[in-house]
Amino acid sequence: xxxxxxxxxxxxxxxxxxxxxxxxxxxxxxxxxxxxxxxxxxxxxxxxxxxxxxxxxxxxxxxxxxxxxxxxxxxxxxxxxxxxxxxxxxxxxxxxxxxxxxxxxxxxxxxxxxxxxxxxxxxxxxxxxxxxxxxxxxxxxxxxxxxxxxxxxxxxxxxxxxxxxxxxxxxxxxxxxxxxxxxxxxxxxxxxxxxxxxxxxxxxxxxxxxxxxxxxxxxxxxxxxxxxxxxxxxxxxxxxxxxxxxxxxxxxxxxxxxxxxxxxxxxxxxxxxxxxxxxxxxxxxxxxxxxxxxxxxxxxxxxxxxxxxxxxxxxxxxxxxxxxxxxxxxxxxxxxxxxxxxxxxxxxxxxxxxxxxx
Length: 358
Known about the structure:
With 358 residues, the chain is an alpha/beta fold. It has three domains: 5-145, Rossmann fold (3-Layer(aba) Sandwich); 150-212, Helicase, Ruva Protein, domain 3; 217-355, Zinc Finger, Delta Prime, domain 3, CATH 1.20.272. Helices cover 57% and strands 8% of the residues. The protein has helices at 5-10, 21-34, 52-59, 94-100, 119-138, 153-163, 170-179, 184-198, 206-212, 217-229, 233-246, 250-275, 281-284, 298-310, 313-330, 339-355; strands at residues 13-17, 42-46, 69-74, 106-111, 142-145, 167-168, 203-204. The strands form two sheets. It has a five-stranded parallel beta sheet with strand order 2-3-4-1-5, sandwiched between helices. α6 packs across α8, α7 (170-179) runs parallel beside α9 (206-212) and α15 runs antiparallel to α16. The longest helix has 26 residues, at 250-275. Residues 279-288 have low confidence and may be disordered.
């Protein structure tokens, strides 16, 4: 549903979610600004601080100083519905009955917030939040889900730089966006660091972004992939060791992040390569991902097409075989010295494959 604060305040239950934290924050601010509630009748709690039944009880309290009683439940994904009810997520679920039973004076706002932790922990919270969204909608509530549009992040960066009294080139703005995965809120936060680093200079340069912005792990993995495709073994190993420093638990946390990202990138490269050649669908289907290359972030599309121009189909197949081999080594299915050694040897072998003339 398209966001409209007037629609939100007419409802008794609202869900605010999605991966665009900046838009989520703006939406919540607009909802709270549009509702007729006294500040003393507005409360904010964390999803795991009390039970869901207490959410409904608190928001159903009769307001004394305004027209509405507002309860905002932040980080709703921390609360798993199945911990409190064994019922399936259907229209007769007990939580649905609770949502339907909210009085007209109530406004219960469930907010999915970004969480720290490894990928499995974050995905678990996303799953829980989506379950609450489903129950809320069954109960007559409205849901607003905000998805990051990474193509607009560089524009937001340039506009914010202007507000800070500085300029930033499109190249530097694109780099900053790439380094934070295109996340608008994070990009604007890191921009302020780059602006401080630039000092009295009227321009935030590419070098300022590279020096001041803290890249996320995904970006570092893509930099690793870039170095591999370019057959730059020195840079590839240096990038891999940077990842080692950021994540000491190589086997438990880093490897599950690095390998799927590398495989995903090479699948996009395969797709870009296949799309530039007149090949039959049966030959391409094994490696082409279900998600279209055109649906990927702009910078990922650009990287895939640039890499596809360097590599032929045979090289890409060999790269896949190396990725499968190192997965077996780290999982103990093939002999290896250690996870770091396996990853470094894989990186060097991939560089050698990509360095061959196609």
